[in-house]
Amino acid sequence: MWTMILKMTGATLLYVAITAGLWFMRRKKEKLGTGLQVLIGLIYGGCSVLANHIGIDYGDMVLNVRDIGPLAAGLFFSPASGIIAGIIGSVERILAGELWNIGRFTEIACGVSTCLAGFLAALLNKKIYQGKRPPVPQAFFLGAVMEVFHMYAVLFTNRQDMAMAYRVVQTVAVPMISFTAVGMALCSAVVMKVSGEKRESRLLDDEGRIPLTVHFQRRLVIVTIGIFLVNFVISWGIQTRIADSNASVALSYISYGNRKIYEENGKNIEALKNHLQEQYHTDIFFWLVDADSGKFLVDPGFEIPGDRIKGEDLEKAKEQADQDVYRMEIRTAYNTEVLCSCRYIGEKALLMVMEPLSIVYQNRNGQVYENTLSDLLVFTVLYVLVAMLLDKLVIRSLQRVNVSLDRITDGHLDEKVWVRSSSEFSELSDDINQMVTALRGYIDQAEKRMQDELKLARNIQDAALPKNFTLSEESIDLYALMTPAKQVGGDFYDFFYCDRDKLCLVIADVSGKGVPAALFMMQAKTAIKNYASHGHGPAKVLEHVNHTLCEGNDAEMFVTVWLGILDLNTGKIQCANAGHEYPVLMRAGGDYELLKDKHGLALAAMDGISMKEYEIDLDPGDRLFVYTDGVPEAINEKVEAYGTERLCEKLNALKNVSQQQTLESVLRDIRNFAGAAEQFDDITMLGITYNGELRE
């Protein structure tokens, strides 16, 4: 036994080593060339040939793991390799039986099995695994099923000598099925190791969840095994009852027939003895014993201790005489239980006709064994067909639905789910399409409401901005513009007289978009104008406005502001900056440069903050330019920002033109820079040129 196990282990590991080596050589090749496929087929075919001639003795039988060759070639490499290996191993196995009488009794079964292994592996590679490695459990299962078919083929192709066929299968089934299954599992494991796979990825999806196919297959395996076991138990019980019934009828008939012969011969015991001695054979044997002493009246035909049967056996025989067949245990060459039919012959003798249970149940065991193998094959085929049917009708349809749903969730609302493999999927497709149609309607309505909101916000924003830039004083040239983005924000500018000789200049940027930002802009603009009109300096104006905006600011919005109050007589500007962009100042005859002024915190961000104030002395010809962050943060198609450096360069090219021309030219430059890139923020600018004192 142990010698057989060691030899079978060595033969199995040889296949594993060959598989590992061949996979190592091909691991970097995405696709095997024709020549390499043929070579792999020849190598595995050669291994099957070698297995035919170097078998492993086990009792008076020969074992091998020949079918691993075509299975491994077809499953782990290519369909062509599996077919080539299967044909080589099959043809050589039949030739070996016909020409050299090597295993001739099983040559057809072995040849068909090896050939089928190659074609089955090719089919599975192409249709089921699609060129990928079968998982270790499935490789184990495939190896076992292939050898089960091998055993069944032995029984099926040797109907003329079923006793020998049963003996062959009973001897070789367990080791050959076990080692072939383990060998295939090890081949799958080494391929996984060589190829660098981390786990059996087919059991989990990308998010670590168990797919529906795995759940279904697990339950299907349990149901299939349950049905198989129930069928086995029922078959065993039926065949046992049939065997018992047939044996009982036969034994009763023989015992009755022999008693009739005794009576027909004038109740001559000697004539019966002669007849029994002529009838003796190994399957059914006869004891003729003295009813009183249990002594054999006829030679039992084989060695048995003593010249009589045991007392308890004699008493049992007397009890059951002329009644039903019963069981008894005797020490014979069979050393086993027998079925016995006992009848009185005259008054002094008992005729006991017996058949060993091993003979009684021989046909039952063979029939049950054959049924078990055939049922296992049938259940396996049904399992595969049901799994494939589930994949085709359910899983693939679900995948098609999911593909369409992924496109819909990505925003492709024109996508139609069109899966018509069954009435249920047709209904599901129609329901999803109706839902998407309704969703499109809701989105259209929401977009319309949004457009209406944006239009209202633009109207609020536009109405709040002063449009008349013609001032009565000739001492200044002032112009401002605001270009809103698609998502309306809260940019605004303002200029107004806060005293007879003082002009207040404001530019601001409210956080947020849409109507809330526009309303917050109106609140901030109104508060600034109110406090500035009371004669407060810029810092005090912003502090008061900050306190006002902080009250009831549930939306937690804020606004950055640059505010300057220009004394038209002196040219001095008192300024304060609440988190806004740096202004750009140009002295007469000089260049535009950023004025990095003192910043405070944005308004409405925190109550009770203080602002810092500073002054700018403007001389005749000086120019001041203020703006919102939509100017330097404008983005082009390369995701590059316009920037303050480019802004100053553009302004320096416009020193001698009016403020209106300056601002419009800067706006055109920004748009040319952005190109096809979308404008994401409002662009707001205000420019002023100081020309001198007020006239008297």
Can you walk me through this structure?
This protein has helices at 2-26, 34-53, 68-76, 79-100, 107-128, 136-156, 162-195, 212-264, 269-279, 311-320, 357-360, 362-409, 423-464, 514-532, 538-550, 643-652, 659-674, and strands at residues 56-58, 61-63, 285-290, 326-329, 337-345, 349-356, 476-483, 492-499, 502-510, 559-567, 572-578, 584-586, 592-594, 599-600, 613-617, 623-627, 683-690. The protein is α+β, with helices and mostly antiparallel strands and 696 residues long. Strands 8, 9, 10, 11, 14 and 15 form a six-stranded mixed beta sheet that branches. It has a five-stranded antiparallel beta sheet with strand order 7-17-16-12-13, covered by helices on one side. A four-stranded antiparallel beta sheet has the order 3-6-5-4. Helix 3 runs parallel beside helix 5 (107-128) and helix 14 packs across helix 15 (538-550). The model is unreliable at 200-204 (pLDDT under 50).
* Biggest β-sheet description: 6 strands, mixed
Poorly predicted spans: 200-204
Question: Can you tell me the number of structural domains?
Answer: 3
* Proper CATH architecture of the largest domain: 4-Layer Sandwich
Distance between the termini: 127 Å
Q: Given the structure, what is the number of helices? A: 17
- At the fourth level of CATH, the homologous superfamily of the largest domain is PPM-type phosphatase domain
C-alpha Rg, in Å? 51 Å
CATH topology of the largest domain: Phosphatase 2c, domain 1
Indicate the proportion of strand residues.
5-15%
Number of strands: 17
